[in-house]
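so my prof wants the structure for this chain in the tokens format not the other one, which i didnt know existed until like an hour ago. anyway here's the sequence
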Amino acid sequence: MATVTSEVLTTERQPVAEKAPLAKAEYPGALVVVEGIDGSGKSTQLYLLKRWLEIGGYRIHFTEWNSSPLVKSATRRGKQRRMLTATTFSLLHAADFADRCERQILPLLHGGYLVLADRYIYTAFARDAARGCSPHWLRNLYSFAPVPDITFYFRAPLDVAVNRIVAGRPKLKYYEAGMDLGLSLDRAESFRIFQERILSNYDQMIETDRFVLMDGTVRVNRLQTLMRQLVAERVDLTRFAPKKK
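here's what i got, hopefully its the right format
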């Protein structure tokens, strides 16, 4: 396995057949995904990539995890009342994803758009499994999802990522910190343990899901330059460029 360093930032593995997602469907669009634990820098990098593409006039669409209005109120009520079990929480996220997939992701892929996703099904595979859901059940639950053209996995050391989040938040939320799991009475410590579990699950997917590994400790501008280069190498951006008059 390749080592993640500031000099070696990417790696790609062959998938294991029994764990790999469904075969890529035929459509003119492309799907670029970022994954990683909280504080890994993934959202910042995808935002910068999005702005670069927007300024260039490329035909893109941005979507993010847990953003469908269809289930937002139910999720909010469940969190407020602390009623969500691991399975219920997972199914709400799956419903959210299914709604966005059917209304946004798939139609736009078929319409010839470059879709950028801030977290994807691998978030469920990592986070919901950390809450105790069966990995096999989760894979089956999301088996309808289109396979990304490229999945960037931003990996930062656990302490670095956790310190970034704790330093920027006045208080960690109950489910965010994994308090529902009874890991610790201290929210910061519970959050660290929870994120450690999630990180371990992500690491196990590097080979099976062909993640492109990115060092989350590298300077933002350098990492963004590399990300743009990799997207240009893996995706034919001319398909999404503005038409010349």
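also thought this was worth mentioning. Residues 1 and 11 are 8 Å apart (CA to CA).
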